[in-house]
Amino acid sequence: MASSGAAVPFWRAAGMTYISYSNICTSLVRSCLKEPHRSNAANREKVHFAISKWSNGKPESPTIRSDSATE
Amino acid sequence: MYRFAPRLLIRGIAGGSRRSAAPARPFSTDLPAAPTEDATFVEAWRKVAPNVDPPKTPLAFMKPRPSTPASIPTKLTVNFVLPYQSEIANKEVDMVIVPATTGQMGVLPGHVATIAELKPGVLSVHEGNDVTKYFVSSGFAFIHANSVTDIIAVEAAPIDHIDPTLVQKGLADFTQKLNSATTDLEKAEAQIGVDVHSALNAALSG
């Protein structure tokens, strides 16, 4: 088992996780596609969710985040 | 803590070699399939309740590990999946070449069981004289002992879906960003951009 010896990939050395690395690679590839495929791919990157913070056992008003192609 | 690592490692190696030649932990591909029911439990149950069938435990519901065939199969079974669709499902092919981080890896039937992390690159599926190429953004390839290969990727596109002008522009942009990057994170992001666009470039010309 590599404890202190193995070379870590450059993105992990810079503090990035594998998932962030993979998502960045994916969005770059998607941005290089030809037109009909590019808009189909952009649809896949859209996220839409609502976050509410809870305090004193009650939810506060939710903030809705609707991003497309987040970095 | 790690100052003692060499000493601990040597102690482990020396201790291991003093034992018999058999490895302490066999490879997972050499293990026999797990038994579907626990013999001691079944015996104890029958002693206590001989007229009632013993209940099935979760182990009995699990499908056993597929056995490694005795002779090398002639074809490779490939499954290539993306999060939003399954590109190739249970297709019998002759060879696939996967873009592993350690280089382009050719997988033939009978390949040793491997887990490979993929880098952005070209995946080619060879069936007779047909070659189907995809550009894969990143993912993993699992090659099992029974010559079933599962390739999972986040995004993959046939090479002719890639736009060369956008690739050149992206490559120029990121090379410039790499030169002007200051923090580690910016450098890493720019380096990823350069890597991905160079791989796209190589895929278009290769």
From TrEMBL, chain A:
GO terms for biological process: proton motive force-driven mitochondrial ATP synthesis. The keyword Isomerase does not apply. This is ATP synthase subunit epsilon, mitochondrial. Its main location: mitochondrion. Gene3D superfamilies: ATP synthase, F1 complex, epsilon subunit superfamily, mitochondrial. The keyword Mitochondrion applies. Keywords: ATP synthesis, CF(1), Hydrogen ion transport, Ion transport, Membrane, Mitochondrion, Mitochondrion inner membrane, Transport. Belongs to the eukaryotic ATPase epsilon family.
TrEMBL record, chain B:
It comes from the Eukaryota. GO terms for molecular function: proton-transporting ATP synthase activity, rotational mechanism. Its main location: mitochondrion. Residues 77-149 form the ATP synthase F1 complex delta/epsilon subunit N-terminal domain. The keyword Transit peptide applies. InterPro entries: ATP_synth_F1_dsu/esu, ATP_synth_F1_dsu/esu_N. Keywords: ATP synthesis, CF(1), Hydrogen ion transport, Ion transport, Membrane, Mitochondrion, Mitochondrion inner membrane, Transit peptide, Transport. CDD domains: F1-ATPase_delta. One of its GO terms (cellular component) is proton-transporting ATP synthase complex. It is found in: Mitochondrion inner membrane. The keyword Ion transport applies. PANTHER family: ATP SYNTHASE DELTA/EPSILON CHAIN, ATP SYNTHASE SUBUNIT DELTA, MITOCHONDRIAL. F-type ATPases have 2 components, CF(1) - the catalytic core - and CF(0) - the membrane proton channel. CF(1) has five subunits: alpha(3), beta(3), gamma(1), delta(1), epsilon(1). CF(0) has three main subunits: a, b and c. Mitochondrial membrane ATP synthase (F(1)F(0) ATP synthase or Complex V) produces ATP from ADP in the presence of a proton gradient across the membrane which is generated by electron transport complexes of the respiratory chain. F-type ATPases consist of two structural domains, F(1) - containing the extramembraneous catalytic core, and F(0) - containing the membrane proton channel, linked together by a central stalk and a peripheral stalk. During catalysis, ATP turnover in the catalytic domain of F(1) is coupled via a rotary mechanism of the central stalk subunits to proton translocation. This is ATP synthase subunit delta', mitochondrial.
